[in-house]
Please model this.
Amino acid sequence: MNPLLGHLQPYPFERLRQLLATTSPNAALPPISLGIGEPKHATPAFIQQSLVRAILAQPSGLAVYPSTLGDVGLREAFARWLSRRYGLNLDPATQMLPVNGSREALFALTQTVVNPAWGPRATSDQAPWVVCPNPFYQIYEGAALLAGARPYFLASSAGSNFAQDWDRVPDDVWARTQLLLVCSPGNPTGTVMPMGDWKKLFELSDRHGFVIGSDECYSEIYFRDEPPLGSLQAAAALGRKDFKNLIAFTSLSKRSNVPGMRSGFVAGDAELIRSFLLYRTYHGCAMSPVVQAASIAAWEDEQHVVENRAQYRAKFAAVTPMLGEVLDVSLPDAGFYLWAGVPGSDTDFARELFGLYNVTVLPGSFLARETQGVNPGAQRIRLALVAQTAECVEAARRIVAFVKSRS
Model:
């Protein structure tokens, strides 16, 4: 058995299941879960119809082996979307690939990039670093460990937005870093990285040679007038038209409410894409032609994205002021999470809320690792506002009542 598996920690949702296992929820109230970030808005009918047409076509999309590179039409759809969204001009033949959702791709790219026996640093205490945000999406940690690297968890800067403090990373860590994973808009914080941060990271990458993987799967759910800045967009604005050592990840799951399709793409440095394609050819993770057909339809349409974003804006506008009366919480830059400060222990808060009011939330400490003696997720909870507005408002009403009952 691969001994590296022993380094993996339970996923946050398994830890949540264990936390709540001995607590009986209030049966007088219907359950409401804000724990898992799974989109609940209706899948657009035209995407479903595209899937059906692809299945029924002759020859059926199920009758052929898919290409790892993906259909030319799919990659051209990626390129058109990047042009509309960010004003970019990437080559569909060399600078992008379809992936089965961003989670799969984040894991696979890490295996492609990391050299665990890099130079003389082959011993465990000198293994290469994969630098990760903190709090973070747990696939970053698992991918690093199973690639034979060590995850280095960033410290957050002072303040409530949980921006990453790049200046607190020691030079000797940057020197051994092979991959930096960033998430903007962030999960769970909703923070969007500004241009100044991208400039700093590109300079560090040039100096030390590490790859930057930018997880941008929440980019289309935002609350400001300006859409979130993307990594490729920042690179192009800074004159980095070849996107050296940069790969961006995006997905249809949140944008188009199709998490079950497992469809997204990566784009960026053509040399990295070439190596990633080689890995994926052996990994056997080509996207189904049926999913490719539906994905083309989804990437070509923006109206359903505008409507989806409007639903989230209305929901957050209703819920955030309610919770702001009793918790340390404010409207994020983007994403569909509220990252709320709570009085006392976040695990006690989640367990008691579940027992008394039948509302499930995720303790923030489950989404972070202790850094310099501090877990940045402690005394925080993540609320996934993915259900319909009425249900989220009812959950907020119960949370307000719960907090007031404890004071």
Summary: The longest strand covers residues 177-183. The mean pLDDT is 95.
